[in-house]
Amino acid sequence: MMTIAVLGAGKIGESLLSGLLQAGYAPSQLMFTERYTQRASELEHQYGVDHTDVVSAARHADVLIIAVKPQDIEPLLDELCPYVAPSKLVVSLCAGLPTAMFEQRLAAGTPVVRVMPNTPMLVGEAMSVVSGGTCAQETHLDLAEELLGCVGSVVRVPESQQDVVTALSGSGPAYFFYLIESMIDAGVLLGLPRAVAGRLIVQTAVGSAAMLREGEGHPTIMREGVSSPGGTTVAGIRELEKHGVRAALIDAVEAAHDRSVELGRVHEDGEPGE
């Protein structure tokens, strides 16, 4: 029976544990590490999954899912590396960290799969993107996709595209939250109670996303379907174009991509990141 260890039980790690249990994995197949004793006890009580230490996880689990912040990776690897055999699969959810960094530290031949998830994992709607390292076989990528599929959608891309993924879907929720926040503020400015404005915009966002997911059409065609000639929507879109909102969003994604590349280079050079 395959055993899975989630190393780092923060929000993402906990969400993955919860998703795996809901997908039918038994608590006895799962374990997790967590540095804070009180939180570890709370998670054990809530999910019935055993809390363990890094060394025990490395020795006993078949799959090691690393869900710590990138800046915490070095001390974790110091503990982990002497006990990871090439028979185990290492899945990294650490933004910006290349598989080569893990392969240099782990035993030769250890398969590593890099994953860029995003925070909608907290509600089972993640967009996770997986890439295999040099030793990862098709079966390893299939297994990673199966595990991440418990908490949302999964796409596979070459690792060379992961920095773009990080900028687009990894950081993407923040861009949407920023836009929604701004639209709610506009509603308040024009006289709506904040709670009402929030409900209007959040449901509008949910409905619009559902239309896109159901394949109702290209975003441009769907936008044109809302934009009657000489109407209110056209007037609003004109202002967005006048203020360069499209260009600003493209620049934001490009800046996030460049930062992801920078963080990856820092870790490849063996220096602490952030």
Task: Give a short summary of the structure.
It is an enzyme of class 1 (oxidoreductase). The chain is built from twelve helices and eight strands.
Detailed description of the structure:
The chain folds into two domains: about 5-160, NAD(P)-binding Rossmann-like Domain (Rossmann fold); about 170-245, ProC C-terminal domain-like (ProC C-terminal domain-like fold, Orthogonal Bundle). Strand 4, helix 4 and strand 5 (about 90) form a beta-alpha-beta unit. The two termini are about 35 Å apart. The protein is built from twelve helices and eight strands. The radius of gyration is 21 Å and the shape is elongated. With about 270 residues, the protein is an alpha/beta fold. It is about 55% helix and about 15% strand. Strands 3-2-1-4-5-6-7-8 form an eight-stranded mixed beta sheet, sandwiched between helices. Helix 7 (about 160-170) packs across helix 12 (about 245-270) and helix 8 crosses helix 9. Pathway: Amino-acid biosynthesis; L-proline biosynthesis; L-proline from L-glutamate 5-semialdehyde: step 1/1. Belongs to the pyrroline-5-carboxylate reductase family. It catalyses: L-proline + NADP(+) = (S)-1-pyrroline-5-carboxylate + NADPH + 2 H(+); L-proline + NAD(+) = (S)-1-pyrroline-5-carboxylate + NADH + 2 H(+). Its main location: cytoplasm.
Provide tags for this entry:
274 residues, alpha/beta, 8 strands, pyrroline-5-carboxylate reductase activity
Q: In terms of quaternary structure, what is this?
A: single chain
**So how many helices?**
12
Query: How much helicity do the residues have?
Result: 40-55%
At the third CATH level, what is the topology name of the largest domain? Rossmann fold
Shape field:
elongated
The poorly predicted ranges are: 270-274
What characterizes the major β-sheet? 8 strands, mixed
Any idea what the radius of gyration is? 21 Å
